Amino acid sequence: MQPAAAVPVIEFSDVSYRVAGTQVLSGFNLQVQSGETLVLLGRSGSGKTTSLKLVNRLLTPTSGEIRVKGVSNVKGDLIRLRRSMGYVIQDIGLFPHFTVERNIGLVPKVEGWPAERIRTRTRELLHTVGLAPEIALRYPHQLSGGQRQRVGVARALAADPEILLMDEPFGALDPLTRDELQREFLLLQQRLHKTVVFVTHDLREALRVGSRIALVEAGRLFTVLAPRDFLRSPDPLASAYVRAFGDGLEAAADRGTS
To answer: Which of 20, 94, 116, 135 could bridge 140 with an S-S bond, Cβ 3.0-4.6 Å?
Structure first.
């Protein structure tokens, strides 16, 4: 007897989204499995960020359904849903008048964690993302861009969510810092095995960090492939991406799977 298939952690079922007369997403069907990094790849305006925001109900589908661990995400408590997911965005979104420790400990505090547990968790996470413990007492304006982005990742991990939603998390950084954070993300994911939905417009980044790549264009999902298969895909849109990004793609895919 065959074992039952695992329920996807996140599932889009014929999801569409329309706003102000514009069709932003159409007939979106996608499954994200436990422990994988599913990359949503596409140009600006393709619908990637909209798809991400539908998962944690920052937006609500016009039609169709999104299920999280088998349950529609419009059922149950909205706050509880959002606290079950870490959310990392390009501009980080740290509170400027909070120290790093207060930023990281925000969700644990509203969850009722005692102060000492929050302090311990903050130090643990700073170590996890490669920051010194004294960073905890600094304010965001006292940090570099790379340090702020690391703090953003630490904050998303603070309450140990199963799911991470990451929207162009390294897009605003210089190339060297971006490369470093991509490497650190891969090492972190090898240890933590979170279920990650990662938005990017950069094919090299998608090949490097993704378990699978979902190509989005004009609000439609075109293909979902493993990085190596994406490089060889006959799909015209995928082939256009490969041509546009040129050299170094095989190496990026190798780094992602090594």
So the answer is: 94
